Amino acid sequence: MINKLVDKIKKTEAPIVVGLDPMMKFVPEHIKEAAFKEYGETLKGAGEAIFEYNKGIIDSIYDLVPAVKPQIAMYEQFGIEGLIAFKKTCEYAKSKDLVIIGDVKRGDIGSTSEAYAVGHLGKVKVGSKEYYGFDEDFATVNPYLGSDGINPFINVCKEEKKGIFVLVKTSNPSSGEFQDKVCDGRPMYEIVGEMVDKWGSDCMGDSYSYVGAVVGATYPEMGKVLRKLMPKTYILVPGYGAQGGKGKDLVHFFNEDGLGAIVNSSRGIIAAYQQEQYAKFGALNYADASRQAVLDMREDIKGALLGRKDN
Predict the structure, then answer these.
(1) 244-281 b/e with 16+ CB inside 10 Å = b?
(2) For residue 126, what is the enclosing H or E element?
(3) Residues involved in catalysis
(4) Cα 46 versus chain centre, distance
(5) Which residues pair with 100 in a beta bridge?
(6) pLDDT at residue 251, rounded to an integer
(7) 295 FRET partner, CA 20 to 30 A, in 108, 129, 148, 227?
(8) 4-18 burial string, b = 16+ CB within 10 Å, else e?
(9) Mean pLDDT value across the chain
(10) What domains does the chain contain, in order, with CATH numbers?
(11) Tens digit of each residue's pLDDT (9 = 90 or more) over 259-273
(12) Could you give the CA distance from residue 193 to residue 222 in angstroms, rounded to a whole number?
């Protein structure tokens, strides 16, 4: 699947993943009204509204980007109906040939980690048959418990030719409380980065490993160090747009060939119509606003990468 992701990035010339992180305040009123008319102001109504909202965005951007990244917590808050919307969103995005990065941030050990890996990336056995659960192509994983938590995911990735993105240096302001702590003379994020490189060396695609890393756009200098420590690792870069990251902050996350990183934007794209810059589209045309936000993001990143070459 890492080969497919890289191929689609080359084809679209857009190292972008759209974060499908829906909140009810993002969903236009006409979509909520239609869902509530059919199902009432219920969890089922909320789940239906979220799926229809996602569907409109996917329809507007699937030809521009290689991947989407649904954040499972935004669906779990609505209980089982939210998880149904998560599953339907993954299926619909896959029908448009988008790569699915499940932002699930799982982190446990032994049989529990194996069950998480099977549920999100693999197949579960039911009697004499096997079924995919959520069937994402990648999943985000928390490495805090060490190799015991990562290896079950890697085993499933090898079987299914899928991948993971391991949290290395996250974009949130307090990430340094743990990730920047010095251990044996080095910050913890560097040690985790080296472990990611080690884990990935045993499961390579054509050019990059199935084991990727999450490194926030809000820490470009740290990204520069980690890029060198993980030369065959694809980096998922959150923090663009709403969290303050700009195209110029991203250049060090990429290799010289312009590959090696994929940048996430969530509410900056899915709720673009609520921003002053895209307000002209209005709520009825929210999906068109999302498409324009993707186009603008693509040009911002492309310009930054070209600027690096010129320098």
Answers:
(1) ebebebbbbbbeeebebbbbbbbbbbbbbbeeeebeeb
(2) strand 123-126
(3) 105
(4) 23
(5) 68
(6) 87
(7) 227
(8) bbbebbeebebbbbb
(9) 94
(10) 15-162+238-305 (3.20.20.70)
(11) 999 999 999 999 999
(12) 11
Give this prediction's pTM: 0.94
Give the span between the Cα atoms of 102 and 94, in whole angstroms: 12
SS3 (DSSP) at 216: coil
pLDDT at 282 over 80: yes
Q: pLDDT of 23-77, one tens digit each?
A: 999 999 999 999 999 999 999 999 999 999 999 999 999 999 999 999 999 999 9
Q: Are 234 and 2 in contact (CB under 8 A)?
A: yes
Give residues with Cβ within 8 angstroms of 153, minimum separation 6: 106, 113, 116, 117, 121, 139, 141, 164
From first CA to last CA, the distance across the chain in angstroms is 33
Mean pLDDT of 236-256: 79
Long-range contacts made by residues 252-259, C-beta under 8 angstroms, separation at least 24? 252/220, 252/221, 252/223, 252/224, 252/227, 253/215, 253/217, 253/220, 253/223, 253/227, 254/15, 254/227, 254/305, 255/227, 255/231, 258/15, 258/305, 259/6, 259/9, 259/10, 259/15, 259/207, 259/208
Compute the radius of gyration of the chain from its Cα atoms: 19
Residue 39: half-sphere exposure toward Cβ, Cα within 13 Å: 14
What tokens does 248 get? 């110029």
- How far apart are the C-alpha atoms of 215 and 189, rounded to whole Å? 9
